[in-house]
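go over whats below:
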Amino acid sequence: MQEERTSQLHADIVSALKLTSQLGRVYIAYSGGVDSHVLLHCCAALPELQGRLTAVYIHHGLQIEAESWALHCEKITKNLGVDFITLRVNAKAIQGESPEEAARNARYTALKSLIHVDDVLLLAQHREDQLETVLLQLFRGGGLRGLSGMPERIVFGSGLMLRPLLHTSKQAIGDYADVHQLSWVEDPSNQSNDYDRNFLRNQIVPLLKQRWPALDKTVSRSAKHCADAQVLVEQVADELFSDIFNPEDNTLCISRLTEHHSSSQQLIIRHWFGYLGLKMPAQAVVGRILGQVVAAGQQRDPVLSGQGYSIRRYRDKLYCLAIQVRPQDCVWPTGQTSIKICADQTLSFLLSSKGILREQWLAAKVEIRFRRGGERIGLPGRQGHHALKNLFQEAGIPSWERDNLPLIYLDNQLAAISERWISAEFYSEKIQGCISLSLQS
């Protein structure tokens, strides 16, 4: 029986790896615990993986024992003839992160840096881990995506992440470890029920399994049903999304969005967040986006902010924008052809036959300022002076972009507005005698 279980573990790993067209380096996330040790031991015994394996220990810096665990892991891998590396990460939680989430994010960020094209990362999560994940999502009100649990296979870094033991029971892993007399470390924090997952693992799941012994298997099956349904939902969402999404500026067309039923609108908003690489919004957040921003009149400018972004509307478009710090006024150093006005924008000048006279530019004190309100400018070929607000409206520039457009002053006089307009008082035409402006992101 034990030989059959060992053979099955080996077969599961080989089967998972056959999903890849070409196999490069195989990395194993190795914590030193029993699950990852069993996975490492199984892989080290496979002829197909000889010379390809690297075990990776993530040093979170959260436990006093972490240094000794790293040494233990290095010793084990050396005995197995497997390459070993330690990655040190900063796992301190930032605002809005739980300690578990912070550690996971730090761990995955570090591991992604290793995975190149055709490389694979193996994780040792098993069927009972899947049970805990699905229960946690259920208790938190998760939808289909959450109730699908952990996927067996996903794109990770430039390669793949695989969970070859996801359909393996915890009992089978423990039996394997006992038969092969493996030595592993025990993380004392696993006994702390302050963490939700530990509380489930230590208190709730054992009680549930007294009544339903096959609970991990049946819930894993339910997770697979949810994952299959989620694939169909994604296909529908992609079709709806493609008709509403504007790829040139990553916006949604509001008039086409509101043609759909409320449930479809929510699906499209979530698909949009996924496309933008953002964390899935809670149901209440999606409701506020639709109720407070989408449903607002065109003349209003509601703002819904959170998680480093803001949701806004302008005319018939819905925007998701990174929250930016307003740029500071500055002097353009003499002799420089460009100046960085904020973290992701540079203003440059180029020789041109139309624009501001080059000698006038070089002789003046050039300053970059930003709107304070009330600025006016005369334009070539147009009568009178125009308020910047009116020009911005004519050009269809959203309100949040207006305050960040650089205003160029020559000797304290407004000479240009970014690369869009040049004052009539400064405009000239002279072959290779003028300069034009270029704003680059």
The two ends are 63 Å apart (CA to CA). The chain has a mean pLDDT of 90. The first helix runs from residue 2 to 17. The chain has three domains: 2-211, 224-322, 330-440.
